[in-house]
Amino acid sequence: MDRFPNAADVEFHSPLDLTKAAAAVLDAEGRFSGWSASAQRLLGHPPEEVLGRSADRLLATGPGARRSALCGARRPRTAVLDLRCRDGHVLRAAVTFSPLVHQGAAATVVVAAELTALRGWEAQLAMLQGLATESSVGLTIYDTDMRVVWGNASTDQELAGVAQYVGLPASALFPEGEFISRHHPPDEDQVMEQVLKTGDPVLGMHYRGRAPADPGREHVWSCSYHRLVDARGEPLGLFEESLDITERYRAQERLSLLVRAGKRIGASLDVRRTAAELADVAVPQLADEVLVDLPPAVIEGRQPPTRSAPGHSLLRMHGRTPEEFSTTPVSYPPSSPQAQSLATNRPVVETCPTPDEGSPGTRRSDLFVPLLARDAVVGLATFRRGDNPDPFGPEEQTLAVELAERAAVGIDNARRYTSQHAAALVLQRSLLPRRLPEQSAVEVAYRYLPADSRVGVGGDWFDLIPLSGARVGLTVGDVVGHGVHAAATMGRLRATVRTLALLDLDPAELLTRLDGLVTQDCEPDEAGGPSDEALGVTCLYAIYDPVGGRCVWASAGHPPPIVADASGSVALSAASPGPPLGLGSLPYENVELGLSDGSVVAFFTDGVVEDRRTDIDSGIDRLAHVLTWQRCPLEELCDRAMSTLPPGPQADDATLLLVRTRRLCADRVADLELPPDPAVVADARTDTERQLDTWGLSELSFTAALVVSELVTNSIRYATGPVMLRLIRDRSLLCEVSDNAHTAPHLRRARRDDEGGRGLFLVAQVSQRWGTRYTASGKTIWAELSIP
């Protein structure tokens, strides 16, 4: 069985070796007295044709004198001769003549081989000579006990003399070295034992250590191990070939480090996280520790100082997670290398002894690199080596500068984002209600949780709007997107909803008009793109009437409210919401609910019930379960609901508005139906004065009677059916007159000679506010009088 199946043509025996070469013996007269079988194979002549005959017969030319001279020489000589083969062709051969003397008889041993084969063998021999003396590949031979036997010149140079290691185990060459390739044993002895045992070579393993000839610098070699066997196939040991690939390995490491830095540094849009990302990328490949110092202004999102290098007031970043983040004030004297780096905007290397008294010979190397972005210094990065004594070389300094540049851009982007996020948050909070007005109809509590700073401020809003007749309007909405524009759009829509609500529109009509306004904003501009980002706005609007305990709501793509009645039973609305605002497609429909006194209604945005890890149905079930505790105070219910949100950063704003409904007692509402006869105006005044006296509001009798008289007179003049008078005692006195006419009353200034037109003017003068709302059966004119 061939021991070298992949190298069958490799032969390291000389073609002139007696076991292979053509051999013959010449006597003193130059006649063949001996002829070997190998000579017959080479030239084709059988022994009977050449024995006893002159050797000149085999020469293709006539160099008889030369042959005679070589045969008569006292020392072995080699010549190149053209020999004639039996088939007639000429063979150029290398021929060696070796004189013999035996009992006074002279003879010459002639050995011949094909010249081409000899030249090839000599080339192989030269190659082996080069590997031993000139090759940069280190070759080391070990015996079966894995002890050093021999090393070539490259190995001798790395070991500062291989002779001192002959007979020692392999572990003695690089005591602190280690394999850094994966999927192989980390110990060199285990690798060599595996090769000796199995015969399978191990190729291209990366080994890191310090060569005895260069102990101050860490090297990386590519090592391969092969088993050596003798002619019988028995192991002789093994040999190792090693190539120093330090520069190539470091270049690959630098490239992979830059690729990793491009993916990780600056991806968070958070100043502190970006500082931690720089340290995570650079340790331990480039440095043992990375320190990042930033000006307070950068951390807070403000413009970094530009008057001078900020070496006197920096904050050092600590921690890898938001829970661990902390800062420590640092300052650098003007003569320090840190201050020099900040002043010159260049990296500075400092090497100094470590303070470890137990290792007096160790030294620490620091590389200070300024963080520059848009021609401004945003901080300082310190790359520190303590365990690795190698100082930072030029290529490593260049790599550190590139990493610092990436980090500086990420920090500056995070700073600008922090500034914009803070501005958007201030804008959003300024546009949201600072407090909701107290109402007799409802008790309210709310929570607003902004999205994580990396996502940006969203466009959630909520509001409570006092309406006529002791009713309240309740709204909650969400603008798709984040940032200043989303906050501004939210503020504009909230103001629009409040304006439309004060027109006493029902929820479906209000959303229809709001949809029209949003659609106009979303029309393409001159450039062909949308002029507004309000597409995808959702909104829910509801009106609660405490007199009848009736709640009417409509939704534009927004989750419907969840209702928990006074007994704790939770009901989810089966009605589907209409389309989001801005689509201008399907109409909106009202949904009417009858609510008992003390019911709790939850209005919310999708950030409360939905995140990336759970679906919206699970979130709604979670919120509904919290509402089963509806008898708890609303503030406590809000806290319970928000505490059920998944931990971690919020992907979207979360807004929750809880409303506990109240019913107005029957003794606080008085209704009177009047026929369309002007004579009943006096009765309306009398009934009003009597009711106010019952309520203990006699001081309002004159003013209320005047208002009722004018409103009833106005309705009787234009209506064709009965007129309804309603008085409501709430935080103010509410006077309402309803009829079946749809004509709108108008306030005007009457001239001196006009007989009428002063009624509504008088109502407007004596009341806090007045207005008109329309119903399916007509209209209601109302006025509010302040209770002293």
Overall average residue pLDDT = 83
Share in helix? 25-40%
> Low-confidence parts, pLDDT < 50 over ≥5 residues?
1-8, 526-534
Number of helices: 19
Strand order of the largest sheet: 7-6-11-10-9-8
* Strand segment count: 32
> Biggest sheet, in brief?
6 strands, antiparallel
Global outline: elongated
Describe, in plain words, how this protein is organized in 3D:
This protein has 788 residues and is of the alpha+beta class. It contains 19 helices and 32 strands. The strands form six sheets. The protein has a six-stranded antiparallel beta sheet, sandwiched between helices. The protein has a six-stranded antiparallel beta sheet with strand order 14-13-12-17-16-15, with helices on both faces. It is elongated and about 175 Å long. The N and C termini lie far apart (119 Å). The model is unreliable at 1-8 and 526-534 (pLDDT under 50).
